[in-house]
């Protein structure tokens, strides 16, 4: 079995994580949005204190890569000036895990509820695991159904608001004024009922392990059907562009910052450019809905990750044009599957003996082929 280290926590601005290319500093923009000034500032700080590479994560966060330990304090000072640091409080920073559906309009419930939830989390220490998170998804279409979250504020089939525990089919119907307090009460129940110790601290695992929601927190309201994942293109709120493998150069972020008053981050390796009515063109941006890169996921790989057994993204990019229509590919440098923990049609897992191939599964499933060379991989993908 492949050995690897599971950190069990996520990096932040105040608590970076060491990787193969230096420190990784994660930013959690408030409301899932960066002003143009903040985005441009992050680009400059990444160039000055990092290696110029910026990740967009599956939790709609940004990561500045390649930061030197000696430069971390100066970087934090720069981020604080941009309003991106949680008052020197690592615990509050880690607790503020909120994914916000990006297609909101000024004055609607999504934006307002996200801000209210942030304030509530800042005012109350809940003792939640660092990977525990919330989603605010109050549009007519439920676009965050597959995004990682443990407590979800959503719409029901009648258009009302519900608060739902991840893993529960239905949620509790709430008024606009009750939604955030109900979400906080659900988080407090999770902690009090032993959820922190159960299933590595995730709500769905806690419920699957036998925990029962109390009557006051359970409900029968059905959430709206999950929408299909959005694709690059012009939307009512602006232009949605993808990033190959969720990574960009700092210059790309600066370019996007110059196009609009703000940028909204998403969990789909895409950025919404507010109000833009034309698709921007620049190397590194995915602007076509049919681009095969949208069906390929790859972790950062070696040498940036010390756990990875080989380079991943160049291989993934070379394989993308050869994928059969509708086929999704995941290239993982090890069996952790950080970039995509869920199932894919094809999954390549780096090992000390080459790549293992998993069909219709995750990196931790039993492979159908082991020890493949890159030539083997290219032949098999072309045949799929």
Describe this structure in words.
The protein is α+β, with helices and mostly antiparallel strands and 384 residues long. It folds into 3 domains: 17-89 and 231-286, Sulfite Reductase Hemoprotein, domain 2 (Alpha-Beta Complex); 104-208, no CATH class; 292-383, Sulfite Reductase Hemoprotein, domain 1, CATH 3.30.413. The chain contains 9 helices and 21 strands. Strands 3, 11, 12, 14, 15 and 16 form a 6-stranded antiparallel sheet that branches. Helix 4 crosses helix 5 (179-192). The longest helix is centred in the first third of the chain and has 15 residues, at 109-123. The radius of gyration is 20 Å and the shape is globular. The two termini are 26 Å apart.
Here the CATH topology of the largest domain equals Sulfite Reductase Hemoprotein, domain 2
Spans of at least 5 consecutive residues with low confidence: 1-7
Gap between N and C termini: 26 Å
The fraction of residues in strands falls at 15-25%
């Amino acid at each position: 079995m492949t050995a690897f280290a599971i950190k069990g926590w996520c990096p932040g601005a105040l608590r970076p994580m060491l990787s193969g290319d230096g420190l990784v500093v994660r930013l959690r923009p408030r409301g899932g949005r960066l002003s143009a000034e903040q985005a441009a500032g992050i680009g400059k700080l990444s160039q000055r204190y990092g290696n110029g590479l910026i990740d967009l994560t599956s939790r709609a966060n940004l990561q500045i890569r390649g930061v030197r330990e000696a430069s971390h304090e100066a970087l934090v000072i720069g981020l604080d000036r941009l309003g991106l640091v949680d008052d020197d409080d690592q615990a509050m920073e880690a607790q503020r895990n909120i994914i916000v559906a990006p297609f909101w309009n000024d004055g609607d419930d999504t934006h307002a509820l996200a801000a209210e939830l942030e304030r509530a989390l800042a005012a109350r220490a809940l003792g939640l695991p660092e990977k525990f998170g919330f989603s605010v998804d109050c549009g007519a279409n439920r676009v965050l159904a597959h995004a990682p979250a443990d407590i979800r504020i959503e719409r029901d089939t009648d258009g009302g608001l519900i608060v739902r525990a991840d893993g529960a089919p239905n949620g509790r119907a709430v008024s606009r004024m009750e939604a955030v307090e109900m979400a906080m009460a659900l988080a407090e129940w999770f902690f009090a009922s032993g959820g922190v110790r159960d299933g590595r601290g995730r709500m769905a695992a806690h419920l699957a392990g036998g925990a029962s929601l109390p009557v006051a927190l359970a409900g029968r309201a059905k959430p709206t059907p999950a929408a299909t994942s959005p694709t690059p293109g012009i939307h009512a709120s602006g232009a949605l562009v993808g990033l190959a493998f969720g990574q960009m150069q700092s210059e790309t972020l600066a370019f996007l910052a110059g196009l609009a008053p703000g940028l909204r981050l998403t969990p789909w390796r895409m950025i919404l450019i507010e109000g833009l009515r034309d698709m921007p063109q620049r190397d590194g941006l995915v602007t076509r809905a049919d681009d095969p890169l949208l069906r390929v996921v790859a972790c950062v790989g070696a040498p940036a990750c010390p756990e990875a057994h080989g380079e991943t993204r160049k291989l993934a990019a070379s394989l993308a044009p050869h994928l059969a229509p509708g086929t999704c590919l995941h290239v993982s440098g090890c069996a952790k599957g950080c970039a995509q923990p869920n199932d894919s049609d094809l999954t390549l897992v780096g090992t000390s003996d080459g790549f293992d191939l998993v069909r219709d599964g995750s990196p931790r499933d039993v492979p159908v082929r082991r020890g493949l060379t890159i030539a083997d991989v290219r032949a098999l993908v072309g045949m799929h």
